[in-house]
């Protein structure tokens, strides 16, 4: 490249992270919202501190939190402090209601319900925090994940650090019970 009049151009591909695009195109609210009521309007994106820096979460009837990943639509719920993005599955379209927004609309989380361990994604009979038996919904989700994410090589794009799904520790002072409630309606006439 020492010949006079010869020019050389170098181009570099810049990888822009999804979180940076979202943050650059969103108005970020830094005040604390009023949690005394349900947010029914587009309140937008809020900033708060977490264990790994700042996280951002969508609140209200927002419409700019869609992403298509692995052939499915997902709603972005939060950008975590580590830069990972927390999403909720929505299906093959952006419709927000109906069976198409669920992975399996007919499966109960767990058909057993008379013991506290059955609220777990995994459980062990007679133990509060056991992990030996899969709940029926775990089997369905594991199969779906293998078929639609792992076998299609999207697994490398999934954060393994988001530990919120398996956290089943009880807060002190609370307990669990099951009960049947009966409502009696009496016709009152003047």
Describe what you observe in this structure.
There is one protein chain. The protein has 190 residues and is an alpha+beta fold. It folds into 2 domains: 12-102, no CATH class; 104-159, no CATH class. Helix content is 11%, strand content 22%. The chain has 2 helices and 8 strands, in the order H-E-E-E-E-E-E-E-E-H. It has helices spanning 18-24, 136-148; strands spanning 28-29, 42-50, 53-60, 66-69, 72-79, 85-91, 122-123, 133-134. The strands form 2 sheets. Strands 1, 2, 3, 4, 5 and 6 form a 6-stranded mixed beta sheet that branches. The protein has a two-stranded antiparallel sheet with strand order 7-8. It starts with 17 loop residues before the first helix and ends in a 42-residue tail after the last helix. Residues 186-190 have low confidence and may be disordered.
Kindly summarize this structure in a few lines.
This protein has helices at 18-24, 136-148; strands at 28-29, 42-50, 53-60, 66-69, 72-79, 85-91, 122-123, 133-134.
Distance between the termini: 102 Å
Strands, total number:
8
Total number of helical segments? Answer: 2
Q: Summarize the main sheet.
A: 6 strands, mixed
Mean pLDDT: 83
In percent terms, what proportion of residues is strand? 15-25%
Helix/strand order, N-terminal first: HEEEEEEEEH
Look at the helices and sheets and give the structural class: alpha+beta
Shape: extended
Count of separate structural domains = 2
Low-confidence stretches: 186-190
In angstroms, what is the radius of gyration?
24 Å
Share of helix among residues? 10-25%
